[in-house]
Design a protein that fits this description.
Layout: H1 2-25, H2 30-40, E1 43-47, E2 54-58, E3 62-63, E4 75-80, E5 85-94, H3 100-110, E6 115-118, E7 122-131, E8 134-148, E9 151-160, H4 168-175, H5 190-201
Antiparallel strand pairs: 1-2, 3-4, 4-5, 5-9, 6-7, 7-8, 8-9
């Protein structure tokens, strides 16, 4: 009995040591580490000074200052390290009088979408990422287009395919994006000088940065 008790105690000590050492010796996958950080990060809010739309993003992502100077109603927010590059964009498009369905169909062709979803006042397009008609290997995009007045407000994410399963929180943010904090707000500002600025200064582009093709 005494010998059995000693063996039992020894086994408990060994198991305790294994539990203590394991967190320090096991290697966690990069995607799991990123997902944990994403799921626990505080969400920041950016509000466009011209059109007033709002977008939430993780606190460890950074607004790219140069993007704010490109044209009105555009912002680029990104996270980039040696292992992962995720880009978030918000911008506006004039809808040229198109219905949601016709707009979705035409943009799906332009953006090489492989999946599409039509809602009551929005549509979602997703597919492989292209730049200058060339596909960027291992990257995809996911975009929500919301109709407001004469504009489509767009929230899009470009991401590495191998991290797709770790980006659920950002997919949900895009799926539930409401554009304005108060949905009763109109876009009269956009119907005047903003639309003119968009027509003159907006160069249509899909977000693929040099860093994605390295």
């Amino acid at each position: 009995m005494k010998k059995t008790a000693l063996l039992f105690i020894a086994a408990l000590v060994i198991m305790a040591n294994i539990d203590f050492i394991w967190p320090f010796t096991s290697e966690r996958k990069d995607g799991d580490v990123f997902e944990q950080g994403l799921n626990t990060a505080e969400m920041q809010t950016y509000q466009d000074p011209d059109l007033g739309f709002m977008v939430r993003y993780p606190s460890f992502f950074a607004i790219q200052p140069d993007s704010l100077d490109e044209y009105k109603g555009y912002v680029r927010i990104s996270y980039d390290n040696e292992r992962i590059n995720v880009v978030l964009e918000c911008y506006v498009l004039h809808n040229n009088g198109q219905s949601l369905k016709s707009g979705m169909d035409s943009l799906a062709q332009v953006l090489n979408a492989t999946d599409r979803k039509l809602g009551s006042d929005y549509f979602i397009l997703s597919g492989p990422q292209y730049e200058n008609n060339s596909r960027i290997d291992d990257y995809s995009y996911y975009s929500r287009f919301v109709s407001r007045g004469k504009l489509w407000f767009v929230y899009t994410m470009v991401y590495p395919n191998r991290y797709r399963d770790h980006l659920s929180r950002l997919f949900k943010e895009i799926d539930e994006w409401q554009v304005f904090e108060d949905q009763r707000i109109g876009i009269s500002r956009a119907d005047s000088f903003i639309l003119d600025a968009i027509r003159k200064g907006y160069k249509k582009k899909r977000t693929v940065y040099n860093s994605l093709s390295r």
